[in-house]
Amino acid sequence: MKAMPKLKSQGLKLLVALVMTLLVWVMPVSAAELPVTAAPAEPSLGRSLDADDISAEKINQFVRAYLQVLALIEGREAELQGAEMEPESQQIQREIEAQAIGLIQAEKLTLQEYLQLLSLTNIDAEFGERVAAQLQESVQQ
Predict the structure, then answer these.
(1) b or e along 30-51 (b: 16 or more beta carbons within 10 Å of the residue's beta carbon)?
(2) Nearest 10 degrees: CA dihedral of 61, 62, 66, 69?
């Protein structure tokens, strides 16, 4: 991504909703199938999230993973839409899923943490603003 216009709360919510929809579409993982970690990296990312307790570093990890997953999905979208047969489409979906999970884990997040943070970004306005500010800073560098 070369440049991203300033993100506003509504724009971020729309973008988060889009990415969340794409991830859910690409990664049909039930809650029972999500990876379980013995000790979460941050207690606030357990069952109940408290946005105030999420560290700046955790937000940085999420933003880096988010931008990479977004670029992956955008980069493979045409290929996925161009798949002529269902088996080919499913194979591409599995590849995208594996790559996205790898990108998320490379940022030291579990898939469950990533999806929780993505969801929180969309439902908690204050946390969404924290993430939007970090996104703006990241794309301007």
Answers:
(1) eeeeeeeeeeeebebbeeebeb
(2) 70
Q: Is pLDDT larger for residue 15 or for residue 55?
A: 55
Query: What is d(CA 61, CA 17) in angstroms, rounded to the nearest whole number?
Result: 19
The per-residue pLDDT for 141 is 79
Q: Which helix (H) or strand (E) holds 24?
A: helix 9-26
SS3 at position 68: helix
For the whole prediction, is pTM greater than 0.70?
no
Check if the beta carbon of residue 132 is closer than 8 Å to that of residue 59: no
Q: Where are the domains of the chain?
A: 56-141
**pLDDT on residue 30:** 38
Is the pLDDT at 46 greater than 50, yes or no?
A: no
Chain CA centroid to CA 136, Å: 16
